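Lay summary. Proteins are chains of building blocks that fold into shapes, and those shapes determine what they do. In this project we predict the shape from the chain. Here is one chain we studied, written as its sequence of building blocks.
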Amino acid sequence: MQKVPEAGYPIEGLRISGLQRKLTLENLSFPLKLIASIRKAGAIVKRFQPDAVVGVGGYASGPLVYAATRKGVPGLLQEQNSYAGLTNKWLAKRVKKICVAYPGLEKYFPAQKLVFTGNPVRSDIQNLEKKKAEALQFYGFKPDKKVLLVIGGSLGARTLNEGIKGGLQALEQAGIQLIWQTGKFYYDKLVQELGEKPGENIRMQPFIKEMQLAYAAADVVVSRAGALSISELCLAAKPAVLVPSPNVAEDHQTKNAMTLVGVEAAVLVKDTEAPVKLVTEALALLKDEAKQEKLSRNISKLARPDAARQIAEEILKIIS
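And here is the predicted shape, written in a compact code that computers can read:
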């Protein structure tokens, strides 16, 4: 509700929330919220008169895609994960096309509707080798030392932060240069504990604006396993240690990560083991250049640099 207007586009909200997978008071109000949201979505569709409707899997897209397709507007879904969410499974019969980012989603959707497009991600993280010298200079790093990039999303990831904090001495002793995106939620507390500059080779930030330079500088990346994070890693072709978040619907981050692990395109560390094993696994990978090359080669095969264009073309097809 903040970022979309900042980008110059109007936005309207619906009073809808996710369906909890256990009996809660919030679930009791879900049917009323759904009915109210479908009614409001119907009014938006009538006023806006769209040529197509696109749903990207969040619960907020459910009422709008339902209301639009009920009025005959052609619909398209984009499933970002390797495991289909409830909203997209509910809407699958109502739309003409479903753009997916992983193979094997025929088990959730009609096969004839599927188009393998990948997920749209920022285009400036391609051809990173050409940006490496600029990136090292930007961070004040030496070219003869390895760089570890840790990204936990804009809010941050507590487990990743704990794992890195506990392993700072080991990273320093190994001569590793660290770009550590803590998330704005955890940054101030970490500054109180460690200072603004925990070490000569550590760049600790609440948020990274210059992601293309962070990726370009990195030899190995530690990341959560959200759909868009993985799509960026594929495009950047970076060896990665993935720590799936357990706090997501149907544990889909673990399923995303296992898809990569299954084709030897990433290393997996469980969230419960990260405080102890994260830095150990990252250091082992930083020291093993042959494995880095193998992971980089395999993850790059999953990249879909033209995903946005392909999805746009599918939208134009269902309109025509």
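What the prediction tells us: The mean pLDDT is 91.
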